[in-house]
Each structure stands twice: as C-alpha cells, then as structure tokens.
Design a protein that fits this description.
Helices cover 47% and strands 15% of the residues. With 179 residues, it is an alpha+beta fold. Strands 1-2-6 form a 3-stranded mixed β-sheet. The two termini are 30 Å apart.
C-alpha cells in the first residue's frame, strides 16, 4: 500500500533503492569501510511542515526515521556512526574518497524524485568536492547542530507524543513546531 502522496511507481522505486542500499552497505562493510549516517532530526517543527506539503500522514516521517535507525543498527552500524541534523534537510549525499554523489532537495516535492550530481575529487581546495565534503560533512558531524543517536533516543519520547497528538488531531502544526 503506497504512502499518502506517493504513487505506486515511486513507492516501488523507494523499495528498490532500499534493497540496493542494503547491498552497498554490506559490501562496504566487507571491504572494511567506515560508514557514517547523518539523518534529519524529526522535530515536529520541521517534519510537520514536510508531511503537510508532501501530503503525508502526521507521524509518518518519524516512523520512517525509526525504521531507518532499526535498519542501520541491524546492519551493524555502531551508534557512534549515526547522528541527527537538527535543521531542515537540504540534500542527500554519499561521500567516497574519489567522488561525492549529491542530491539537493527542492523546496517542494519528495527528495526521492530529485536529480543528482556527481563531483570528482580533483584534490583542489575550493573545488565542489572539497566544499561539499567540508561544509556538509566534516564541519557538521561534531557540530552542536547535530546530536548523537543516544541523545536522540533520550528525546524520542517527546517526539513520539507530539506525533501521536498530531495523528489524533489534538495538537496543530503551530503547537508541534515548538517541540
């Protein structure tokens, strides 16, 4: 059953991407790669708006976040290698030693449907590869605008309660945005 706002076709693509991601993660782990995941923090102030403009049910993004955490930990990704960005997500990115795959999000629409760019590491300061790596990973990972998986779990109860209130219609978007 597709999620509200998602076509059967896009839902099928998402599932296929999930299978491909699992394969990529397993092969990277077998090769000894360190994998780190910076996920969007599901504050109601951000996800409530996103759910609204994507036509998704209240609470659906937090369920997706919890599912992602479960998948990553089941793959053996250590808790220290999962963090949450507390601002609005603006891109999906995969960083490799020689390339970066970047998918900037448009202001409307699902990130799954947006085009990607590939940047080569030409070992030159100021190159797109260098700028994306520094400004969207290296300078963000331990920055106060991110939190650890452990800290997320401590805050999760409050997030779940606000999502449940939204589903029950007991709290509007403005009230949830304060959480």
């Amino acid at each position: 059953q597709p999620k509200p706002g998602a076509s059967m076709e896009s839902q099928g693509r998402r599932q296929a991407l999930g299978v491909a991601l699992e394969d990529i993660i397993k092969r990277a782990q077998e090769s000894g790669c360190t994998l780190r995941f910076l996920l969007a923090y599901p504050s109601q102030g951000i996800i409530g708006l996103r759910e609204e403009y994507e036509g998704r049910a209240p609470g659906s993004i937090i369920r997706d976040t919890e599912k992602s955490i479960g998948i990553l930990t089941s793959f053996g990704i250590p808790s220290d290698d999962i963090r949450f960005y507390k601002q609005a997500p603006h891109m999906f990115m995969v960083i490799l030693p020689n390339y970066i795959l970047a998918q900037p999000y448009t202001l409307l629409g699902s990130g799954y449907e947006q085009p990607c760019s590939l940047y080569e590491n030409i070992s030159k300061p100021g190159s797109p590869y260098d700028e994306y790596r520094k400004n969207n990973y290296e300078n963000i990972w331990d920055n106060p605008i991110t939190i650890s998986l452990t800290e997320y779990k401590l805050r999760a109860e409050k997030i779940f309660v606000s999502a449940e209130q939204a589903v029950a219609g007991k709290m509007g978007l403005k009230e949830r945005a304060r959480l």
